[in-house]
Structures are given as structure tokens and as C-alpha cells.
Amino acid sequence: MTSQGSGNGKIILFGEHFVNYGCPALAVGLSNKAIVDIKPSPIIDFTTDINGCNPDYSKKAIGYILKAMRINENFAVHLKGDLPTVGGLGSSAAFSVAIVRALDKKYDLKLTNEQVNDYAYEGEKSFHGEPSGVDNTMATYGGAIKFIRGKGFTKLKILKSMNFVVASTGKSSPTSQMVAKVKEFKVNHPEKFKHIFSKIEQIILQGEKAIAEGDLDKIGHLMNENHKLLYEVGVSILENEKIVEIFKTAGALGAKLTGGGGGGCCIALAKDINHAKEILIKIKENGFDGFVTTS
Ligand code: MEV
Fold first, then answer.
1. Mutate to test the pocket of ligand 1, among 151, 175, 267 (most ligand atoms within 8 A of CB)
2. Phi and psi at residue 97, to the nearest 5°
3. Is 217 labeled as catalytic in the residue annotation?
4. Which is more confident, 51 or 222?
5. Test site for ligand 1: of 11, 12, 124, most ligand atoms within 8 A of the Cβ
6. Fewer beta carbons under 10 A from the terminal one: N or C of the chain?
7. Pick from 165, 147, 145: which is nearest to 29 by CA?
8. pLDDT exceeding 70 applies to what percent of the chain?
């Protein structure tokens, strides 16, 4: 018998990478989901209709989750849904949450969200080593949150809804490589890193306030500043820069890469929903793919 579970994607508005060093991250949930169908199988198996998945990491994640949940049965997992796996949108975490929820259903475990989140984190380790936990938290709870590594999260107050365009570089984001790159930057340029980190902390403080006050111009400005700092630590590649430029030319209030970088996805804040649709057309005219999402 098949059981199904799902987990949601996310975009990080401010603070990716620096969240690993204690800075808060502000993230917004996507309605796009990873959905899995699981059924008992003699071995762990993974299939999908979605491009860009890594079957080895996916199988390893299933194994890690089964072990953490102390389940001594194997499963064939089929991944579907509308969450792109190119990276930056929390697809691996959404996949892990989906598996935990499907197992919860299968065994009628009545897991709390907290337990779902904890088990999903175990799956995330197969993809990203020691991730901050922001992605699995978003995939579990959704909404808009301020996340602090090791401390948990609080819901963000949002005064005005925000219309974003998400665009994919078409290149998978090698998140763990990018995390290692930032670590290297920190080791090689400790003073510069300290300076950048304190600027990010200011962005987070001002960003949270701007979101609560519905100040879209300010949020956009802070996104641009955040992107510059991500570029400085070396996680923005040519395709990220190209998309950010297209966003800006199309009049976006702000634009940045989101998530791990090194490819993956970029986001733009639009003035309103119609503007978001116009920006998306420009993205597609330039040969990239994307979609519009509202907070
Ligand atoms: C990935 O969505 C976000 C990063 O900060 C990694 C992490 O938080 O573990 C790049």
C-alpha cells in the first residue's frame, strides 16, 4: 500500500550562508511542494519525474531518515510535485520532510511538527553535511520566519504581501561546496568576513523592521545589499549575476541570489503582482525559467 507525504519549498530573503555563523536568516515559504509516494520494498529505491535529482543522495537520505526513526523496513520512494530541484529553494529539505510525513502516515505515528523537523534534518545531512536547519524548518512549518541556528525560529510579522519572481540559473546549486567556499573565505580573510557579517546583521535587523512596516522599497534595497555581500564571499556565479541584472533592468525593487548560490535560483521583489508577471516575461525572453510567488 502506498502512503503519501509532502514538504514545501522556501526562498531566503536575507542571511543565507551567514546563518551558519549565528546570524539570523529571514525566509518565506513557497506553495511549491515536493510530494512523495512510498511503498514497502526489499531495498531502498528512488524514482522521480523531476529533473536534476541525485538518486544516490536521495537514497542515502531515505536510509538516514529510516535509521533515525528506527524503522526496519525499506521503501521505494517516488518523488513528484512542482518544486524545482535546481537548488536554492530547499528541495532536498522538502523531500526529507515529505518522506517523514509519508512514514508518519504509514505507521500512524502522530508525529508533532517538531519531530517531523528533527527527522527531516537527519535526511538533510545526506545532502549537505551539517546544514543550519533553516530549509527543513521552512519545509515543515512554511510561512515567513526568522530562523537562528541552534535556537529555532519565530514567525515574522508581514504588513504588506510581497510579490517575488523566482528564476533558475539552470545550474544546480552545489550548496555544500558553496558553504565550504564561505568557510574558506572566513579563514583566509577573517577581518573582511567580520565586516561583512556585521553588515548582514544590520540587513537582518532593518529587513525585519521593513517587512513588519510593509516598506517594499527598503526591503528591495536591502536585498541588493545582501546580494553584493554574497558576491563578495564568492557564491554568486555568472548566471546568478546575469539574472540579477535582468531583474534590475526590469525595474525590480531588489534582486539577489537565494540559498546556496553557485547557480541555483535568484529572486526579485516586484512592485506588485502585474510587475512580477512582467519581470517573469523578461526572464523567459532571456532564456531562463522561473515563476511568480506571493508571500
Ligand atoms: C541553503 O538553503 C542555505 C545555506 O545557508 C545553507 C544552510 O543554511 O545550511 C546556504
1. 175
2. -60, -40
3. no
4. 222
5. 12
6. N
7. 145
8. 100
pLDDT score for 86: 83
Q: How far is the CA of 2 from the centre of ligand 1 (A)?
A: 32
The reported pLDDT for the residue numbered 107 is: 97
Question: With 90 as the cut, is the pLDDT of residue 166 above it?
Answer: yes
244 alpha carbon, distance to own chain's centre: 18
Instruction: Reduce the DSSP state of residue 162 to 3 states and report it.
Output: coil
Instruction: In whole angstroms, give the CA distance from residue 3 to residue 215.
Output: 43
Q: Per-residue pLDDT averaged across 252-257, rounded? A: 98
Whether the pLDDT of residue 174 is over 90: the answer is no
Distances (CA, A) of 176 to 58, 131, 260: 15, 8, 8
Angle ∠(132,70,90) on CA atoms, nearest 5: 30
Q: Pocket around ligand 1: residues whose beta carbon is below 6 Å from it?
A: 12, 16-17, 19-20, 90, 128, 131-132, 134-135, 175, 179, 259-260
Position 129 confidence tier, pLDDT thresholds 50, 70, 90: confident
Angle of the 273-285 helix axis to the 238-249 helix axis, nearest 10: 130
- The Cα-based distances of 69 to 100, 202, 250 in angstroms read 9, 39, 48
Of 6-20, 102-116, 117-131, 178-192, which range is least confident?
117-131
pLDDT at res. 19:
98
Closest atom, ligand 1, to C-alpha of 175: 10
Specify the 3-state DSSP secondary structure of 295.
coil
The atom of ligand 1 lying closest to the CA of 128 is 9
Which position among 56, 135, 217, 289 bears the catalytic label? 135
pLDDT of residue 260 exceeding 90, the answer is: yes
